[in-house]
Write a structure and sequence with these properties.
Elements: H1 2-14, H2 19-42, H3 45-50, H4 55-62
Helix pairs in contact: 1-2, 2-4
Length: about 70
């Protein structure tokens, strides 16, 4: 939760007038994290090897929360 607070604080400090666009960008980033991690979890081992990731690293990444 500290990461979330930090990101939201940075958004309002860096661009106080464009905070709504920055919040939208943050939501898009979180959604993309969720989607790609779900896809990574379902990839077969031979495709993981193609992208240079072992099963353990893929599992660790897939188990991260969507906001990180």
């Amino acid at each position: 939760m500290a990461d979330l607070t930090h990101e939201l604080t940075q958004i309002t400090i860096l661009r106080p007038r464009g905070w709504n666009k920055n919040i939208l960008a943050l939501f898009k980033k979180w959604h993309q994290n969720s989607v790609t991690r779900r896809q990574l979890k379902d990839l077969p081992e031979h495709l993981l090897e193609d992208i240079g990731i072992d099963k353990r690293a893929a599992k660790e990444e897939a188990n991260k929360p969507w906001w990180k």
